[in-house]
C-alpha cells in the first residue's frame, strides 16, 4: 500500500473514532510525533503497531489497511 494512502487511513479512522493523536500514541507507546510521521506516510508502522492501532480504534486490521474484500486495490 502506498505510504500516503495508509497514513491517511490511520488518520481518518482515528478521527472517525474521535481518538486524539496523543491518546493513540499512548496506546502504541510511541511519541505523538512518531504517530504523526505514520499518519503522514513518513514512517510505516510495524506489524505489531498495525495490530495495536486496529485494536485501539476497534476495527479489523484488514479494514485499517484497506484490504477488505470489495475495496479497490492498486494494480
Give a structural overview.
The chain is an all-alpha fold and about 80 residues long. The chain is built from five helices and no strands. The chain has helices at about 5-15, 20-30, 30-40, 45-55, 60-65. Helix 2 crosses helix 3. The protein is globular and about 25 Å long. Residues about 70-75 have low confidence and may be disordered.
Helix content: 55-70%
Structural class comes to: mainly alpha
Q: In angstroms, what is the radius of gyration? A: 12 Å
Shape label? globular
Count the E strands.
0
Q: Please describe the biggest sheet, giving its number of strands, its sense, and whether it closes into a barrel.
A: none
**How far is it from the N-terminal to the C-terminal residue, by CA?**
10 Å
Count of DSSP H/I helices: 5
Order of helices and strands: HHHHH
Average pLDDT over all residues: 88
Uncertain residue ranges: 69-75
**Which percent range describes the beta-strand content?**
under 5%
Amino acid at each position: 500500500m502506498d505510504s500516503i494512502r495508509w497514513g491517511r487511513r490511520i488518520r481518518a479512522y482515528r478521527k472517525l473514532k474521535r481518538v486524539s493523536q496523543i491518546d493513540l500514541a499512548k496506546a502504541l507507546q510511541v511519541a505523538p510525533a512518531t504517530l504523526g510521521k505514520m499518519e503522514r506516510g513518513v514512517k510505516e508502522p510495524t506489524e505489531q503497531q498495525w495490530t495495536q492501532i486496529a485494536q485501539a480504534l476497534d476495527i479489523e486490521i484488514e479494514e485499517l489497511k484497506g484490504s477488505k474484500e470489495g475495496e479497490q486495490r492498486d494494480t
